[in-house]
Hints:
The structure is a homotetramer. By secondary structure, chain A is of the alpha/beta class. Chain A folds into two domains: 2-151 and 313-325, 3-Layer(aba) Sandwich (Rossmann fold), CATH 3.40.50.720; 154-306, 2-Layer Sandwich (Dihydrodipicolinate Reductase, domain 2), CATH 3.30.360. Helices cover 29% and strands 22% of the residues of chain A. Chain A has helices at 12-22, 45-48, 67-70, 82-94, 111-117, 125-130, 140-143, 154-168, 214-222, 253-264, 314-325; strands at 2-7, 27-35, 60-63, 75-78, 98-101, 132-133, 148-150, 179-184, 205-206, 227-232, 239-246, 270-272, 289-296, 299-306. In chain A, strand 4, helix 4 (82-94) and strand 5 (98-101) form a beta-alpha-beta unit. In chain A, helix 8 packs parallel to helix 9. Chain A is globular, with a radius of gyration of 19 Å. Chain B binds chain C through residues 176, 179, 181, 183, 201, 203-206, 209-210, 227, 229, 231, 233-235, 238, 240, 242, 244, 277-281, 284, 294, 296, 299, 301, 303, 305, and chain C through 176, 179, 181, 183, 201, 203-206, 209-210, 227, 229, 231, 233-235, 238, 240, 242, 244, 277-281, 284, 294, 296, 299, 301, 303, 305.
Amino acid sequence: xLNTLIVGASGYTGAELAAYIHRHPHMTITALTVSxxxxxxxxLISDLHPQLKGRVDxxxxxxxxxxxxxxxxxxxxxxxxxxxxxxxxxxxLDAGCVVFxxxxxxxxxxxxxxxxxxxxxxxxPALLEQAVYGLAEWQGDKLKEAKLVAVPGCYPTAAQxxxxxxxxxxxxxxxxxxxxxxxxxxxxxxxxxxxxNSFCEVSLQPYGVFTHRHRPEIATHLxxxxxxxxxxxxFPRGILETITCRLRSGVSQTQVAxxxxxxxxxxxxxxxxxxxxxxxxxVVGLPFCDIGFAVQGDHLIVxxxxxxxxxxxxAQAVQCANIRFGFNETESLI
Amino acid sequence: xLNTLIVGASGYTGAELAAYIHRHPHMTITALTVSxxxxxxxxLISDLHPQLKGRVDxxxxxxxxxxxxxxxxxxxxxxxxxxxxxxxxxxxLDAGCVVFxxxxxxxxxxxxxxxxxxxxxxxxPALLEQAVYGLAEWQGDKLKEAKLVAVPGCYPTAAQxxxxxxxxxxxxxxxxxxxxxxxxxxxxxxxxxxxxNSFCEVSLQPYGVFTHRHRPEIATHLxxxxxxxxxxxxFPRGILETITCRLRSGVSQTQVAxxxxxxxxxxxxxxxxxxxxxxxxxVVGLPFCDIGFAVQGDHLIVxxxxxxxxxxxxAQAVQCANIRFGFNETESLI
Amino acid sequence: xLNTLIVGASGYTGAELAAYIHRHPHMTITALTVSxxxxxxxxLISDLHPQLKGRVDxxxxxxxxxxxxxxxxxxxxxxxxxxxxxxxxxxxLDAGCVVFxxxxxxxxxxxxxxxxxxxxxxxxPALLEQAVYGLAEWQGDKLKEAKLVAVPGCYPTAAQxxxxxxxxxxxxxxxxxxxxxxxxxxxxxxxxxxxxNSFCEVSLQPYGVFTHRHRPEIATHLxxxxxxxxxxxxFPRGILETITCRLRSGVSQTQVAxxxxxxxxxxxxxxxxxxxxxxxxxVVGLPFCDIGFAVQGDHLIVxxxxxxxxxxxxAQAVQCANIRFGFNETESLI
Amino acid sequence: xLNTLIVGASGYTGAELAAYIHRHPHMTITALTVSxxxxxxxxLISDLHPQLKGRVDxxxxxxxxxxxxxxxxxxxxxxxxxxxxxxxxxxxLDAGCVVFxxxxxxxxxxxxxxxxxxxxxxxxPALLEQAVYGLAEWQGDKLKEAKLVAVPGCYPTAAQxxxxxxxxxxxxxxxxxxxxxxxxxxxxxxxxxxxxNSFCEVSLQPYGVFTHRHRPEIATHLxxxxxxxxxxxxFPRGILETITCRLRSGVSQTQVAxxxxxxxxxxxxxxxxxxxxxxxxxVVGLPFCDIGFAVQGDHLIVxxxxxxxxxxxxAQAVQCANIRFGFNETESLI
Lengths: 334, 334, 334, 334
C-alpha cells in the first residue's frame, strides 16, 4: 500500500481525489491537508462534500510546512494554487515523495511562460525540465520513471487528445489554425464564493476570449497555434469541445478514423465514436474522454467530451499514478 | 408623472423595480442609488443587469444621506437591508415622500418582533403603527392613504393569499396548524457572492427549519400558528408553496372554491385554477400569484406559485403604488 | 458467480442495474432483455445509455417468452411494467430463479390493492403472500430466504426509512397524519417520450395530489395513514422528502436521535445527520438514503434524500440480492 | 386596429406571438388556429401555455380550410410546419391578407433549395421571388410594401446580424470560412414529445453537424460559405453563437467597431457591446440580438445572443409587421 497525501483537499478536485484513493486497493490516504489559514481547517472533508459522508470522513488538517506530513509518504497529490504548487513540489521531492501536481505550475518547460501567463517567476528551471507532462495516453513510458508529474489542464486534455494524433499523423492543414470552442461546467472555477459563479449569474457565455492561459498550454504541447474560446456553461461539471479543422487536401474520413483508432484503440480511458459525436452527459461522473468527428470535404469537426474534474483533473492524476507504479491503468477509476 | 427614487437598486429586486417604473406611464425614475460604500457605485444598472441594456442605462448613484436625492421626489422604493430601511424610511417620510419598503423593517406592528427575529431594536414604534402592510389584495382601502407601505415578504405573500380567505371564512380546523412547504429560487437570497449560492453548491434542500423569520410574519398577519419549512430550489426565480390544512368537518370542495372566488374573483393578479394546481413555470417573469387546490375528506392541499422577485417583491410594490395613487392596479405590470 | 438476467434493461433503472452487476465480483450478466416489440431490441445498451460505453456494451435482446433466457440463470431482476412483472415473476420462479422485482406488482399482500390502484386483477394471491418486501434495512432475515423480493417504490423507500423507526418506537402522535412532501427528479417517470417530461415543460409542480399509488404502499407498510404530496422537480434524478409529524407529548429531540441511531447505526446505506438536514446533491449518484431532522416543541420535521434510481430502485435491489446471497451488503454499490 | 390571425398557435412561437399581439395597441387577435386534426383543437391557448392565463384565454380553433378564418383579416402569422406554410401562404395572400411566415418555406428564392434541404417541391416560384426575407434591420424599405414576409430562422438571424455588416463592409478574408458555433435552447425543437427533448436526455451536444438546413440559409443570404455547427444546450430558450473569422490583413478592432456602429447604431433591437461579449441570460425573454466581439491580430471572434423564440422568431415577426404597417418598430416588444 502506498501512503498517499492529498494537499489542498478542500476543493472539488480534492474531493474527487479523496474518493478515488479511498477505494484504491494499492493506495491509502495518510492525510488530507488545507492551508493553515483556511477556514476549513479542522473540518471533515465530508462536512464540505457531504457526498463523501460515510466513505471518507477524514479531517482537513492545516498544513504549515511539509515536515509533519511528508514522513513516510510515498505519493503526494497537489490540488493547490499554482504558486503554492510551485513552492511545495520541490520540498516534497526532496522528502522522497513522488508528486502529482494538478496546478499549472509545472506544465510547460519554459520559465518565461509562467511570468507571462501566470504572473510569477518560476524558480526551478532545472526541475521544470524534469517534470513529465501527464497526458497519460501519450506519456506512458516517461511516466513510469517520473518523480514529478504535471497533470494537464482540463481544457488542454480534451483538446490535445483530439488534435495530437491528427497533427502527429500529418492529417491537418495547419495554415488554418484549429478553432477550439469549449464549454465547461462551473466547477472549473473551483469551490469558492464569487459573483460570477453565483447561481443566478451563470448562463452560457464566452470568457477569456483570446486570453485564457490554457491556449498557450495547448499550443506549446501540440507544437502549433490554435484559436481557443472557452465558455462557461450552466451545468456543474463536464467539458465539451467542438474543434473545427482543415484537413490536408485529399485526407479522407477513413484516414481520420484510422488515425484515432491507432492512437486510442488500446487506451481504456479514451472512447471513440464510430458514428456521431458525444454529448456531455455521456461522461459526467466518469473518467473517460469521448471523441467523435465528422468530415465534409476538407473540413473536419471533432467533438470531445470529458468530466473536467475527472479526466480533466483527478482521474487523470490517478491514471498517471497507476501507470507510474505499475498498477492497472484504470484502477479505482472505473 | 410621479418622480420616483429607487434606493438599493443594484440587487435583483431593484432591477425589476427599475424595469417596471421605466415603462410606467405615470411614474418616472429620478435616480437609482446604492450605498456610498458599494463597489457598484457609479456603474450603470445595465452593467450589473445587462438585460436592462438599451432600456434603463442609468447610473447607480452613491447615496450618503438623503438630502441630495429626496428633493422633488414623490415616491421612494426602498430595496435595502432591513436596518437601512429602518433608518431611511422616516427620513424620506419627513421629506414628504410616499415610501414603499421592500425590507422586513416595517411589516409587523410590534417592536419586540424586530428584536427577536431581525436582531435590531426598532426605534419608531409610532411610525410602525401607521405603516400599512402591503398585501395588496387585502389592504386596498388602507393603501389609498398610506404614507409608508411595508411590502410583504416573498414567502408570506403566497402563504397569506392562500390561507387568509380560508381562515377569515372559518373553513379551517386550526387545531391542526397548516403545514407550509415552500421552495424558492436562489434569487431570494439576493445578489451577492456566497458559497451557499454558488452554482455547484445549490441543490434542493430545506433551510432555516423552524427558524425562518417569515414564519412569524405569516402567523402574525394570519392570526394563527403555522409550520413553515422553506427550501432552496435549483432554479433562479419563483416560489412554489404546498400547504396542507385540515378543513372544519363537513366543509366541501365547493365551499373552498367559492371562498377563493369571492376573495379573488375580481383581483387581476391572483389567478385561480378551477382544476389542478399551478406549476412554477406558469408564473416566472409574471406578476401573478397562482392558486389551485385539492380536497380529500377533511384534508385540503393548496398550491400557490409566484415569482419571488415580482408578486413576492417588485410587482407587489408597484401594485401597491398603483393602488395608492389611483392608477390601474396592473399598470406597467402586465 | 451468479448468472444474472436483467429484464427490461432499456430504462434508466435497467442501466443502473447493468452497471452494478457488471462490476459485481460475485454476479455476472448473462443477458439483457427488452420486450420483443421494443424498438430498442437488438441495440446495445450503451447505444441507449452512452455512459455505459466501454463498460457494458451488451445487446438488448428481444424476449418473447422466458424459455430462451431462464436456463442456467440464478438471479433475475425485473425492471418491467407492473403487469409484465406480474406475469413474468411466477414463470422465472418456476424456472428456479430468485426474482427481484422493481415494479409495483408484488409489494402489497392484498390482491384488492392492485385492482384499486394499479388497474389489474392480481392472479397470484398465494405467491403475493410469499413475496418479501425489500425494504432492506428492515427485512434482513426474511430476505435471506426469499424467492421473490418486491423492491419498494422510490418514494416509499425514503418515507418508510424516515417514519418506521419513529412509529415502531411509539414516538409519534398519529392522530395527526404525517405530511410527506416529496420532490422527485424527472427520471422517476421513466425513459420515454412524453410532453410532460419534455425539457421545456418541466418545472417544479405537484402532481397526483391525493391520488398517487405510492401513498397506499407507504400507509400499508407503516400501518398508519399519511398525507403524501409528490412533486416533479427540475432535475434529472434524486428525491427529497420533507416530512412533518407530531411527536407524542414529551418526546424529546434526543429520543428521536436515539431512535434513529438504534435503527440505523449499523446500517451502511442509511446516513444519519447529527446536525442539519440533507441536500439533494449529497445523494445523487450514490446508494444512500440520508436522514436528518429538527424538533420544535411537539413538532418534528424529518428530511430524507436518496437517488430515486439507486436507493429508490437499482441499488436497493442489489442490496437485497447481496443480503439474500450472503455477500457484503454494499458489494458493488459503494 | 389590424385584425390578426395566428395560424399554428399551439407551439412555443405561437404563444409568444399571441402575447405580443394581445398587448399591441394597433393589432388585435381575431382567432388562433391549429390543424383540424390537432389534439389541442378546442382547448384554450392558456391551457397549453398557462403563463397566458388571465391574459390570452382564447380557444385554439381547428382550421380546415382558410375560408372561415380569412375574412376581414388584415394580417396572418403562420407558425406552421414548412409544408403547411407553403400551402397556406398563397391562399391567405389571395384573400388579401399580409402574411408573415415563420417557417422555412419562403426564405430562399430558389425552388431547388426546398427539394434539397426541406424535402418538398416548391410549387410557387413566382411568389417565392416576391417574398421578402424579414431580416428586419436590413430589409426596412422592402418590408414596407411586402405582401409575404419570410421571417428568418433562429440561427440565421444571429449569424447574419453578426456577419453581414462585416462582409458587406469588406472586412473579412473569406478564403477562410467563418466558423459559427451555435448553441440553442431546447424550445428550438418545438413543443412536442420526443425522446431527444426529454428532460433526462438533454445535455450539451452538437447535432446536425455539416447537415443543418440553416447553413444554406445563412450562406445564401450572406453570399459566402460558412461552417455552421449547431448544439443543443441544457436550457429552455436562447441562442448563443460564437463566430470565428479571419479579418482582411490590417483591419483593426476600431474598424470592426465602427462597422457595427454604422450598421446598428440606430437599430433598437440590436444591442452592441463596447467591451466584452454577451451572455445568454442578457437576452432571454427579450426581443434583442446582442453582439460583442474581440480581435487579436487577424483573428476576430464575434459573439451574438438572442432569444430563439423572440428575435429568432416571434419578436422579429412582429418587428417586421411594425415596419410593414408604419408602427413604431418596437411596438409591443419592449
